[in-house]
């Protein structure tokens, strides 16, 4: 079930001030990808991760359910190729196969996981990338007819690669 928190102006201001920027994830994505057209930062909050994608994509869109969070994102300086949209993670305003990267930084645990994964699959182009960053891996991934074991093994492999890249 999706949960709506950090929506008020006070919460949004605290989120902007104290949230850790995901520089390491952006560095890893830079090594794994090339210049692409469209990146979507789902659950973008006040936009710290969204603007980090700007140098690598023609267009970057941050989405969030909170008008207050998006107001904070818009109040900060953003590159001209960055914009923001209000919408739930499970209902992205993009055509099927339009998106090169769907990213969620410290937000996916709030989403309706099954609906979000179906929506990410719908909007991603063939060969597109889904990148989820979380403070914990204390959950199991599941999707359609793919075995949970396979998905979780892939996720664990990415964690090992990521940790190795930091050393």
From TrEMBL:
It comes from Sander lucioperca. PANTHER family: METHYLTRANSF_11 DOMAIN-CONTAINING PROTEIN, NOVEL PROTEIN-RELATED. Coiled coil: none annotated. This is Si:ch211-93g23.2. Residues 40-131 form the Methyltransferase type domain. GO terms for molecular function: S-adenosylmethionine-dependent methyltransferase activity. Gene3D superfamilies: Vaccinia Virus protein VP39 (3.40.50.150).
């Amino acid at each position: 079930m999706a949960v709506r928190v950090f929506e008020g102006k006070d919460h949004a201001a605290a989120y902007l001030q104290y949230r850790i920027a995901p520089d390491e994830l952006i560095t890893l994505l830079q090594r794994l990808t090339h210049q692409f057209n469209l990146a979507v930062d789902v659950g973008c909050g006040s936009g710290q991760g969204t603007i980090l994608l700007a140098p690598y994509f023609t267009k970057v869109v941050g989405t969030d359910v909170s008008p207050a969070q998006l107001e904070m994102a818009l109040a900060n300086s953003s590159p001209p190729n960055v914009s923001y949209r209000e919408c739930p993670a499970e209902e992205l305003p993009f055509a099927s196969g339009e998106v090169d990267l769907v990213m969620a930084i410290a937000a996916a645990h709030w989403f309706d996981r099954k609906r979000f994964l179906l929506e990410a699959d719908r909007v991603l182009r063939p060969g597109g990338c889904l990148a989820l960053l979380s403070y914990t891996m204390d959950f199991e991934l599941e999707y359609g007819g793919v075995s949970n074991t396979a998905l979780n093994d892939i996720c664990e492999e990415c964690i090992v690669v990521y940790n190795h890249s930091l050393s």
